[in-house]
Amino acid sequence: MTTLAIDIGGTKLAAALVDDLLQVRERREIPTPASQTPDALDAALAELVAPIAKQAERVAIASTGIIREGTLLAINPHNLGGLLHYPLVQRLEKLTGLPTIAINDAQAAAWAEYQASGMQNEDMVFITVSTGVGGGVISGGNLQTGAGGLAGHLGHTLADPTGAVCGCGRVGCVEAIASGRGISAHASGDLSGLDAKTIFAHAAQGHVQAQALVNRSAQVLARLIADVKAITDCQRVVIGGSVGLADGYLDAVRRFLAQEPPVYHVEVTAAHYRHDAGLLGAAMLAQRSNDDCR
Ligand code: ADP
Ligand code: BMX
Ligand code: ZN
After folding, report:
1. Is residue 113, in this structure, part of any structural domain at all?
2. 9 lines ligand 2 (CB under 6 A)
3. Against a cut of 0.90, is the pTM above it?
4. Does the beta carbon of 241 lie inside 6 Å of ligand 1?
């Protein structure tokens, strides 16, 4: 069966056709519109899926935000230009006429990465460092979504009680410092207003402030990983997202984690499916729910 997989992030929207052998075809990407009203996202999704939807038999969405009963509820609406909620499943069913499922992007990616890991009945945590910082927890081989979809939202745990106010309303969240938006928000002087991608490019050229911003993100992430190890005793942490997968970032995280006491050390790897983990995880979960219904 061919699945139209869609990944809705704070920066980009991606879509592709995924077959039962997990081959990804016709991958497309467009920027995520920043708008408080749903109309802009409606239009962007229509533009994104129009050329490929007719070849699909179902839709599987991995999306930023808490996904509850098919609706996106932003925990940090700033990541979506202030959009608070969006009826994902309803809109995509209307747009395509196809049966649709939706799941949080990091939860979906966690599932895909767990399948790729070869682990069995084990514990693994996926962390995306992207527009925000998201997470997905696999416990005893099962994906944890929580009763209300909140499970794994580890970007909203405390990194610094004197830190910036996060869009979720808490003070000093990991996301407010370590995410792409957090890195950009802390830039000043000649870096102010630049996005994380550009700041990473400056860091690679030896720009001192840019290097400090990247290191601060990696250090906060390493402390988060130590917390995750303490909470779950997982055997592996997998990192994805465009910041997480940026050159040198994972090595910096590993260096900071090595400074923590050994009991908090855990294997940290880059996402096997790289930037497609969310798309593939959603497609795999659609496949599984289809099988469950038979
Ligand atoms: P989304 O959050 O929409 O899923 P990404 O995973 O691409 O999208 O994350 C977007 C964030 O990653 C932005 O803050 C962007 O500036 C940053 N980014 C994109 N490419 C790179 C790169 N090559 N190096 C560092 N940061 C990057
Ligand atoms: C935020 C939150 C999470 C999401 C994470 C990564 C919103 C809109 N999103 O913490 O649900 O998993 O960002 O999202 O509240 P991304 O856009 O960086 O991929
Ligand atoms: Zn927060």
Report:
1. no
2. yes
3. yes
4. yes
- CA dihedral over 249, 103, 182, 194, signed as positive or negative: positive
**Residue of the CA atom closest to atom 13 of ligand 2:** 132
> Of the candidates 286, 288, 287, which has an alpha carbon nearest to the alpha carbon of residue 92?
286
Residues 63 and 125 in one domain: no
**Structural domains counted in the chain:** 2
Mutation probe of ligand 1 site: the residue of 28, 32, 130, 253 with most atoms within 8 A of C-beta: 130
Nearest ligand to the C-alpha of residue 107? Answer: 2
What's the gap in Å between 8 CA and the centre of ligand 1?
13
Side-chain half-sphere CA neighbours of 157 within 13 A: 17
> Using an 8 Å Cβ cutoff, are 77 and 41 in contact?
no
- Contact yes or no for 156/168 (Cβ under 8 A): yes
Domain residues for the domain of 246 are: 120-271
What is the tens place of the pLDDT at every residue in 173-226? 999 999 999 999 999 999 999 999 999 999 999 999 999 999 999 999 999 999
